[in-house]
Amino acid sequence: MRKINVFDTTLRDGEQSAGVNLNFQEKVEIAKQLERLGVDIIEAGFPASSQGDFASVQAIARTVKGSSVTGLARSIERDIDTAWEALKDSAEPRIHTFIATSPIHMQYKLRMTPEQVIEHAVASVKFAAAKFPHVQWSAEDASRTELPFLAKIIRAVIDAGATVINLPDTVGYTTPYEIGEMFQYVTKNVQNIDKAILSTHNHDDLGMAVANSLAAIQNGAGQVECTLNGIGERAGNASLEEIAVALQIRQDHYQAKTGLTLNEIKRTSALVSKLTGMVVPNNKAVVGANAFAHESGIHQDGVLKNKETYEIITPELVGVSSNRMVLGKHSGRHMFKEKLTELGFTGTDEQLQTIFVAFKELADKKKDITEDDLFSLMTEASVGVAVPHYELETLQVNYGTTNIPTATITMKNPNGETIQEAATGSGSVEAIYNTLERVIDAPIILTDYRIQSVSGGRDALAEVYVTVKYEELETSGRGTANDVLEASAKAYINAVNRTIDRKNYQEQQLNVINNV
Ligand SMILES: CC(=O)SCCNC(=O)CCNC(=O)[C@H](O)C(C)(C)COP(=O)(O)OP(=O)(O)OC[C@H]1O[C@@H](n2cnc3c(N)ncnc32)[C@H](O)[C@@H]1OP(=O)(O)O
Ligand SMILES: CC(C)C(=O)C(=O)O
Q1: Alpha-carbon distance values, 179 to 208, 209, 248 (Å)
Q2: Which Pfam families does the UniProt entry name for this protein (predicted)?
Q3: 177: Cβ–Cβ under 8 A, 6 or more apart, which residues?
Q4: How far does residue 386's CA lie from ligand 1's centre (Å)?
Q5: What is the structure's pLDDT at 516?
Q6: How far apart, in whole angstroms, are the C-alpha atoms of residue 482 and residue 460?
């Protein structure tokens, strides 16, 4: 199987992302993690671009021993000299020098004729090769370069001492088919091509950077240039994690592999995201938060029966501890039962069905159902719900900073009649409790009221605990709802219902005693 060298340019092209500016320590930290990940080459920066970049490239060259370290330089002696100063202490000094070869870049940007570009390229490669044991040369905008000219300049720079030839799709313009043709053309038409390794470097302007990189590998590239999380100039570069995992999972197709320690991928991605401030989208392949999350019932059922039904990558492969089964409105009974069993549920199928119905209702209102939510539903199903002597039908609260809070409640009483009442209070909860007292038509004293959110986040469930003194009994009650006021009403009614249960039980006991 062919080994593909991974050239990571997170610290150079990745840092060219708009809004990203890594400091010295951050660059060194990322470089150390790239070394742990096992990348073959780290492009640490552009030493001639600033003092800061020079210092961090130098520090990385001195610190990192497990990966080769390189820096970018234009075809200018001053850039190459500066790169040498920054890189000379590295284990295997390596330079990356480049010049544009497409008609538009040569004419408008460089203002050089094609012959002048060849002269500059050859002179700079010779100059670099006199210092560096490894010289990488890039034909900037190769994908928009005329192929005969590309072949001509490549032959010349290899003769001048270049050992790696990189053919970038600088503006993310090419397609997998075209890049394949370009690599084939170069392989066939550059006589001395066997003296160099071909490299591919792709941008994502048309969303094809990874596909183009893989196509280049299939057509002869022995090195792939990429960044963590696909960050980079404009729409970014080809993403390292996607290429590495594609090569691993589709070895049958690509017949090529990298030397990366794949289970360092997630950690490296997270570090780069944190230090660059570039958030990884949830749906990003391989490293996104949802990459191993299953949400829908049919998928979850399949995964429970055999993971391979819906998982082509194991999370462990890339350093994610496990897949994630998200309970939500699309989940089905199989996953629900599995989750409840994990949480210690030992009830009957009937109880399970009751909780499942409550869960679906909740899931319609709430985006993420947490374990705490499930505990709460389980508890309500097994111990919390008293016989519904009084049942809440509707609750409406009118609150404003300039008016008196008023609650209007419709309820079923123990005789099955619907009663509507309204009352005011100094706050919304008091208005609700005053209204409930009217409906129940008995003096009820609230002796304790506690509120807590069952789960974190803005859409957390509210759980309210109350203790009421009613009919000389002090009884507690609990209510859970998305809304604090609804939970407060439910808790109060729950306490009243439980009091009635206790009273009924006491009466039954008395009857038994009297009959005896
Ligand atoms: C495709 C890529 O990603 S290439 C890398 C891009 N990265 C960067 O540019 C980041 C670092 N760059 C910088 O800090 C600055 O641009 C520097 C220090 C390199 C140069 O800054 P300045 O001297 O102010 O020049 P400026 O950036 O405005 O213009 C670039 C100059 O380099 C020339 N140039 C561009 N590429 C090359 C090259 N490969 N070889 C020689 N000259 C080049 C341009 O023609 C222009 O020259 P001119 O001043 O004679 O017109
Ligand atoms: C310097 C080269 C390799 C580059 O970054 C590009 O062409 O995108």
Answers
A1: 11, 11, 22
A2: HCS_D2, HMGL-like, LeuA_dimer
A3: 215
A4: 76
A5: 57
A6: 7
Q: Is 26 in the pocket of ligand 2 (CB under 6 A)?
A: no
Model confidence pLDDT, tens digit, residues 386-436: 567 899 999 999 999 999 999 999 999 999 999 999 999 999 999 999 999
Segment 98-150, tens digit of pLDDT: 999 999 999 999 999 999 999 999 999 999 999 999 999 999 999 999 999 99
> Distance between CA atoms of 283 and 230, rounded to whole angstroms?
13
Q: Which residue, judged by its Cα, is nearest atom 39 of ligand 1? A: 99
Whether the CB-CB separation of 23 and 30 falls below 8 Å is answered with no
Rounded to the nearest 5°, which phi and psi values hold at 303?
-65, -40
Task: Write down the ipTM of this complex.
Answer: 0.98
E strand or H helix at 417? none
**Number of CB atoms found within 10 A of residue 94's CB:** 25
For 344, the token pair is 């210690």
Please indicate if the annotation marks 237 as binding a ligand.
yes
Domains of the chain with bracketed CATH: 2-276 (3.20.20.70), 294-384 (1.10.238), 391-512 (3.30.160.270)
Tokens 């159902």, residue located: 369
Here the tokens at position 428 are 């919304």
Tokens, residue 69: 């370290």
Residue 515 confidence (pLDDT): 73
Structure tokens belonging to residue 9: 């340019």
For residue 383, pLDDT beyond 70: no
How far apart are the C-alpha atoms of 161 and 494, rounded to whole Å?
84
Strand pairing category for 134-140 and 94-100: parallel
Residue 384 dihedral angles phi and psi, to the nearest 5°: -85, -25
Name residues contacting ligand 1 (CB within 6 A): 13, 16, 46, 48-49, 74-76, 98-99, 109-110, 140, 170, 233
